[in-house]
Amino acid sequence: PSASRRIGVGVACYTQGSGVGPYEGATVRVDPSGQVFVYVGVTAQGQGHATTLAQIAADALGVRFEDVSVVAGDAQVHPFGMGTGGSRVAANAGPAVLRTAREVRDKATRVAAQLLECGPGDVRIEEGRVYVAGVPSRALSLGQVAHAAIRSNALRETGTPGLHGCTYFYPDTVTWAFGAQAAAVEVDLETCEIRLLGYAVVHDSGRAINPTIVEAQLHGGAVQGIGAGLWEELVYDGQGQLVTGSLMDYGIPKADQLPLVAAFPVAQLDHPSTINELGIKGVGESGALPGAAAIANAVEDAVADLGVVIREVPVTPARLFALLAEARPRRG
């Protein structure tokens, strides 16, 4: 860079208590058609709940992912839920889905053992196909087993007919996610323009059920943090009226202001949580936590020798200009 352009690097770290209780639940039902329905009390706003929870159910039940339908927010079929927030859905609804799917699988095993004339321990369920271990030709579809379960006395001990179940997961405490983000910026001392050159994200989300969704959540959250560090601000006039109340005035990040994907890496750490059997930690809000601090640290690093200390975000060109002017007399 030229004499008027400075490079700065900033880092910010965080921990996040995620997956707050008190509980979350799931109802799982296998239809005689073979379709699996998962009902939960939490709704999504783009986090990918339907994909993640369907993966958990499919793996636990032994069915294909495409045969699982996740239905959220229908109080007639699943009346209780504590809602979406606090990076809690995968960490709380995920274990509930897992436990309920295992319960339903156990029921299917009991019914299938009677139909296939074998012991429950010899029943295998894979991709919606129920068969006897070592004798794959002796098989039924899971839908056939669900149909038989309506009348089967093999479920006498469970107390209810049919392949369905409902379980609630109560976490003992929150899961602790942690991570760090780093920013590299270029500061133009003549115009006070700040350009983001690169950005890196590291986050421990425990066991990632769907790493692609986790990466996308972290990318999106990091962009929100970058926006808080460089552009986004609620500005009020002297009468207390909000003057940045529209997208014409409020400075949200735009694609051309962000680094290319190659300069915006995300690294996922895997230290499983001990609070739930899936090992999941929160991730939904994690990406947004340290961004403003990382940006402020990077800008300060670029102009530290000029006596500038960043104590307020966003670091807009106007704010940086004022800080440079304030520091000039102190430098003599």
Can you give keywords for this protein?
single chain; Aldehyde Oxidoreductase, domain 4; 332 residues; four-stranded mixed sheet; 29% helix; elongated; alpha+beta; 2 domains; 6 helices
Q: Give the total of beta strands.
A: 11
Give, in spatial order, the strands making up the sheet with the most strands.
Answer: 1-9-10-11
Which whole number gives the mean pLDDT?
Answer: 94
End-to-end Cα distance: 25 Å
CATH class of the largest domain: Alpha Beta
Indicate the CATH architecture of the largest domain: 2-Layer Sandwich
Number of helices: 6
What is the element string, with H for helices and E for strands?
A: EEEHEHEEEHEEEHEHH
Strand residue percentage: 15-25%
Helical fraction equals: 25-40%
Identify the CATH homologous superfamily of the largest domain. Aldehyde oxidase/xanthine dehydrogenase, molybdopterin binding domain
Poorly predicted segments: none
